[in-house]
Amino acid sequence: MQPEHQGVAVTVLVSVGRHPLTGRARRADQDARGLELALGLEERLPGSRINLLHAGPRCEESESALRGYLGMGAGTGLEHLTLLEQPEGADAIPALAEHLASATPQLVITGARAERGEGSGLLPYALAEHLGWPLVNGLAAVEKVEHGVATLLQALPRGQRRRLQVRLPAIVSVDGAAPAPRQSAFGPARRAQLEVTPLAAERDHELAEWAMAPARKRPKRLKIIKSASARDRFKAAAAKAEGGSGQVLEGVSSEQGADAILKLLREEGVLPR
Amino acid sequence: MLETLLPILIFAALGVAVVGAWRRVRLWRQGRPSAVPLLKGLAALPRRYLVDLHHVVGRDKVISNTHVATAGGFVAAAVLMILVHGLDLGASEGWGGVLGWLLLAASACMFMGSLFVARRRRHPPARLSKGPWMRLPKSLMAFSLGVFLVTLPTVGILPAGFGSWVLALALAAVVGWGLAEMVVGMTWGGPMKHAFAGALHLAFHRRAERFGEGNRSTGLKALDLENEAASLGVETPADFTWNQLLGFDACVQCGRCEAVCPAFAAGQPLNPKKLIQDMVVGLAGGSDAGYAGSPYPGKPVGEHHGSPHGPIVGRGGKALVDAETLWSCTTCRACVEECPMMIEHVDAIVDMRRFLTLERGETPNKAPEVLDNLIATDNPGGFAPGARMHWAADLNLPLMADLQQVDVLLWLGDGAFDMRNQRTLRALVKVLRAAKVDFAVLGNEERDSGDVARRLGDEATFQSLARRNIATLAKYHFQHILTCDPHSFHVLGNEYGELGGDYRVYHHSTYIAELHDAGRLTFAPWKGGSVTYHDPCYLGRYNGEYEAPRRVLEALGITLNEMQRSGFRSRCCGGGGGAPITDIPGERRIPDMRMNDVKESGAGLVAVGCPQCTAMLEGVVDASAEVRDIAELVADALVAAPSEETAARHRPRAVEVA
Amino acid sequence: MTKMLRRDPRREWIARNRLHPEHASVLREQGEGAVSEWLGPSGVIRKNPRAIGFIGPSGIKRIDRSGAQQGGQATGSSHQAAQDSRRTVTIEAPAFLVAVVPELTGGRLSGHDKDLLGLARRLADADPERPGAVLAVIFGQHKGEGGGELKEQAFGEAGIDRLLHLEDDAYVGFAPEARLAALSTVERELAPRHWLLPDSPLGGADLGRRLALRLGERPATGVWQIESDTEALSGWRCTARGAAESLDIQRQLPRVALALAECAEPVDETRHAAEPLSLTTAVPRALSRIEDLGQVAVDPAGVALAEAEFILSGGNGVKDWDGFHHAAKVLGATEGASRVAVDDGYMARDRQVGATGTWVTARVYLAVGISGAIQHLQGIQSCDKVVAINMDPGCDMIKRADLAVIGEAAEILAALVAKVEQQRGGQRDAA
């Protein structure tokens, strides 16, 4: 159906990220990884087209962050980004769903979660539900796209991978396991075009009702000792956290040393079974 | 018969040379425009040549004398030859005969020089290029001997018409060879090209301000980022300015740069001489197969080719130069310091890096991460900006924001995040307090100076950091800035000016030396072992400060065991120019070689004045010497402050701010 | 036979009577550590303060109140008591259901699952008059290899009242569409008041979001705290993490919630029925557009350092690199290296750990022959457990390490490899 040499039409949904320490706008890490995945796909499947799509307000800060994605397009065909302009606090999902339905890409790549706002990671699911497309999360690589079927690698914990096949069109989301994004170059970012489509605002009323505050540090869970004796409970509560000073085995045989290490490895459960 | 042949030969050679010159100039003019005062430059040429250039050449006395004899002899002989043989003035009686004798003397002098050139070419050191350069002594001899012989009849030592027409033809052929090499070759290519291009390069040099006694010009030139049409860095040879291209063409391939280049010595794929020659290849178009010097380590000659409008660094495949060659440079300026032709290698490398970073986004290894950190957190390590002063939580450092006005603004640099450098900073604070210096820090308002970003070619991030730093500094009043980081020292002092920030900046070694001279610091006598001093590139070669650190060490009672390579010949620690970040593999590590230099000096301690040098040298495994910053040595040696009166007497109108 | 306990009433009497002249010797005979504390005939713990402590080297009696002397035994017995003291709770006619879909990694309830079930219990037990029941929906993964047995007891003890065990080949591997169809059927038949899923990358995070959108709910994700709130419709308010962990969102608890680990205390005082339940209608078969082709073999040595959980890292002290690589293979560890090892060309640059290399977050970091330059230690600061093998007991890595073995690296690694191989061989024989 889809001869390989024609490539695929990919839309990458990008958002304005937030640096965890300074809060400055930047490329969102996962979205940038998504774009990297798409650029890799473009290299392997000539004739592929990549579209960048963002829905949100247009201001200096967000524009510089969005241009960060375009800066990754040095030497590729990536030269513009479609910006569906909405005021702050508007619901992006209907706008994006509508745009995707009319643009009909074969593959939509998004990051798993946004770095600003609710950051619930619902967007890819909402779009999949809206469009009725299959969705694969935790993508690590796209192996091939043939005859309207994509073969993907999904990331599992500890660097493991699972191979999946999905019928296109599909939505895939990437997280930290996808390839690290390439550098964003200043020149292409500055030259690239933002195609702005102003949209009527659909306010996200529910979001407006929530109370948002900078994240509090979560309390560390204490080891609860269920003991009848007050002394045991006090000891457990007052005991120093483990690992203050390590155990040093000096003058032991290598066998004994290996035993101690093996014991720790087993306790931590890192040895393959 | 010679009388008829010689004028033809001479004027034919001159004519062909003029055509060649026109073609050569056209090649240079492919470069971008650059505003240079042409006449003023030409007027300054003799002084630049005779003083500035010979100041560099004169570091090797034998070569200097050889060059004076050969070049001086040649210039005189060539001029006189045109007069005597070309215009036939020598035949006339009276002062015309004197010209003939002068010509004899000049050619004899040149012949003497050429003998030394020949001797040097007998067993040439590796740094010298071979190939066409090997025939140069013969050409020099042909010219000088030929001219000498044809002039003998002119002055009457030999009868006119001596010998047969065969001898005359043979002599004409020898003189013709000499003319071809010495005059035609000057503009058509060949070893003598350096004379023509070199002279014009000196006249139209991109950094006219570097000439003159004690002058230096080491700050990189800013890119115009406001103008969106202006290109970012250098993609093709034609993207250099025309006088940069001219400078490349002036290279004599003496290889002094190669001999001092730390990256070349470490086996990284960089050889400054080859790089300049590659630019010449690109300028004219073709392959580097004709290059006859040492290659880039690990890269055979003949595989690269380029053209004036073709890319210098290929995308994927090979072009004129590989990217890792450009990223191997530590920007230590040793090559520029040694170059007798005053070529600006570092400028060229940074220009090409700018294109790779700003247009291609191809800064290697960890560099993109560092640049992203600089953009997002204003420091290369990606630390929270609010944590910049954590190291000094117990020091109660006065903040500029509280005081508004002080004598000295202490610029901490990004070393504030590094646990090793924090020791140096603590020591420096102790010294300043001991000398009762009125100082304050910017605290969390400080940002990275932009040094690393700029050397990595990210001019946009550099300018962003610089402009914000300048805006911060503009809020406060201070006499001068003090820093223990030569990189910040250089950038603040030499590179912020172009962006509107003019400051008097002190390196801590200079400042401590002045404090000691003013009697505000007293030191206990040195009890340690032997010490050597490592000159940081950005303090020494970039800013010419070789004396103050040595004065401080002397004041501490230390007698230095100088390393063989010290002062302006100091070998780089490998930490500059973002080299530890781009991390191009070589056969050895630069800091290991430097630590070896320290070992050879026999010193058990190496004093440094730069956080980068400290980090690089301390990173050497199984080092024979301890690495201490000058500030630490001074802080350790401090004894109770001198009595109040003496301090007050010496204190230059200190403003006491409680 | 000799193990049989024989009571000696006289000795017991002497042991109780601390005024008896033989008291001390009898006590000493009776046991090593239990002399100072015993269970009296009436079930009350009796103590003999005189028997506490020991005679120190200087002949003076010493009392160690840290509990080190007898701690092991005391906690052991109290642990036993806690296990035994679980109250059995059976909810016959629940007022409502709280559905939980545990992630069930490796066929067992994970810590995250238990926390989530604790959260479910809080929701279910809020009103003692009208208690709800916790329903766990589990997909049959235990049939697969290495799955282990699903112990009914473990489910009960984790706080599950009703257990719906769905078994079908369609749920094997990555089958979000089939699982979603099943959960939709559960919703139709049982209509739970709350749906709780763990917000874990490949557990409930995916399924939970799919479910919420299928049910038309806007779920709370990254929930880490709930509080009762009479004003809220559901009676609960939750605090959820948003914006890449940088924001706390306070909102009403919606029907579907995805909770983080440690969102609540796991159940530990009660035992529930874990009564099996089954669906009355068949789950509709959805045509799957996603096909699972199975797991791909990944060489642990090639796993990205930042992702690795167990790193074997070599430095200047490693002399036998073949042995090092072999050890990494046997231990299933990802290989790392110090800067020096990379500079010397023994390892690739992308394997360098440290401030100038990769910052790693491994659970176990086994450093072999690494002295611990400051940059290296910075790079491993977020590792849980650091084990060091080094010749130099004074180096900085030893100071950082949780366990350090001083000795020849090659020998210790070889011994470790031999032990692991031997153990693995033994397992194979047993299997």
Automatic annotation (TrEMBL), chain A:
Domain Electron transfer flavoprotein alpha/beta-subunit N-terminal: 32-200
Keywords annotated in UniProt: Electron transport, Transport
Source organism superkingdom: Bacteria
MF GO annotations: electron transfer activity
Gene3D superfamilies: HUPs (3.40.50.620)
Family label: Belongs to the ETF beta-subunit/FixA family.
Protein name: Electron transfer flavoprotein beta subunit
Organism: Halomonas fontilapidosi
UniProtKB/TrEMBL annotation, chain B:
GO CC annotations on file: plasma membrane
Any GO MF annotation of the entry: 4 iron, 4 sulfur cluster binding
UniProt-listed Gene3D superfamilies: Alpha-helical ferredoxin (1.10.1060.10)
TM ranges: 6-22, 68-87, 99-118, 139-158
Ranges of residues in domain 4Fe-4S ferredoxin-type: 242-272, 317-348
PROSITE patterns linked: 4FE4S_FER_1 (PS00198), 4FE4S_FER_2 (PS51379)
Tree of life domain: Bacteria
Alphabetical UniProt keywords: 4Fe-4S, Iron, Iron-sulfur, Membrane, Metal-binding, Oxidoreductase, Transmembrane, Transmembrane helix
Xref: Pfam families: CCG, DUF3483, Fer4_9
UniProt-recorded name of the protein: Fe-S oxidoreductase
Biological source species: Halomonas fontilapidosi
UniProtKB/TrEMBL annotation, chain C:
One Pfam family it belongs to: ETF
The family this protein is said to belong to: Belongs to the ETF alpha-subunit/FixB family.
Domain of life of the source: Bacteria
Region (Disordered): 62-86
Keywords of this entry: Electron transport, Transport
Domain Electron transfer flavoprotein alpha/beta-subunit N-terminal: 98-296
Name of the protein: Electron transfer flavoprotein alpha subunit
One MF annotation (Gene Ontology) recorded for this entry: flavin adenine dinucleotide binding
GO biological process, one term: fatty acid beta-oxidation using acyl-CoA dehydrogenase
Signal peptide: none
Keyword Ribonucleoprotein: no
